[in-house]
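[job 0412] stage=complex_fold ligand=adenosine-5'-tetraphosphate status=START
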Amino acid sequence: MEEKKVIFSGIQPTGTFTLGNYLGAVKNWGPLQEQYNCIYCVVDLHAITVRQDPAKLRQNTLNSYALLMACGIDVEKSVLFIQSHAPTHPMLSWVLSCCTQFGELSRMTQFKDKSQRHPDDVNAGLFTYPVLMAADILAYNADLVPVGIDQKQHLELARNIAQRFNQRYGDYFTVPDAYISEVGAKIMSLQEPTKKMSKSDENPNACILILDDKDTIIRKFKRAVTDSEAEVCCREGKDGINNLMTIYSIFTGRSFDEITSDFAGKGYGDFKLAVGEAVADGLEPVRTEFARLVQDKAYLKKCYTEGAEKALKISSRITSKVYHKVGFVDNR
Ligand code: AQP
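[job 0412] stage=complex_fold status=DONE, emitting structure tokens
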């Protein structure tokens, strides 16, 4: 029988997830569990590349873990763990950083963006973050990495690093492919629809958080920036409406043509309200399940402890093999 392919992905524990994180990544992770060996983690090591309040980071990490479960990650089917519980990732990251060029890291657009946003803290971790991300993936020899389009450049780098290691030390790493969904791979800001929806946006109306309550979700959609026409259709230049149509289509299963005919002759107000309601209702089960799980601290602890054990079992084997290949003395 053909062995199942390995999927790896991670998400930062910066508060709750945005609708972009959800539609571009997390929502797709659950269904993949049936077909693949899935390994998912909350990437708290990545989070400290920007300054964090320690107590909040701890809380956000636990909340993110519970939220992933509420979004459909089943700990019986997938390995779900917290990144800092697997020291194999930074161990592997060091070796991989020696296979990465300074110039490559300098070209990463996220580094450029984030260093502009935090000019007082352009730390080395922010610069080398994509190497740690490569280690996250390669520590499991993952075949596929489900991410939004914004992570494509980092994934390309992970592929280059894997190939370089393989050339130097002999084929070992699987060169991972990005797994980018056809719709929802780039959800745009509700206030500036040419920019991606991002949780660090200063305007709270730009971004839907998946734990926002129904009224808040509807209010944010009502305030969404659109255009001066009144036709609900997908066309170049109608960035705001195109984005709302994408979101509505994912939540209702309606095609773009169906949406256009459903809203023919109606104004944007009706459409925005319908999008808000579809999203709020669609996210309701996630909110309810999250509220239940987050109370059960003992169960969560059991899940993330067991998740770390499973993750370490796989990644320790791969890291030991890598250490041997580069010429470190075995200690077993
Ligand atoms: N707007 C988006 N549309 C589609 N997918 C998105 N992702 C992020 N934003 C969108 C995907 O979500 C996954 C987890 O992302 P992350 O934890 O690495 O956070 P991020 O990419 O840094 O996203 P944020 O929310 O916008 O954070 P900040 O404000 O810190 O930049 C990834 O698969 C990502 O592609």
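The pocket of adenosine-5'-tetraphosphate is lined by residues 11-12, 14, 18, 20-21, 24-25, 147-148, 150-151, 185-187, 196-200 (CB under 6 Å).
[job 0412] exit 0
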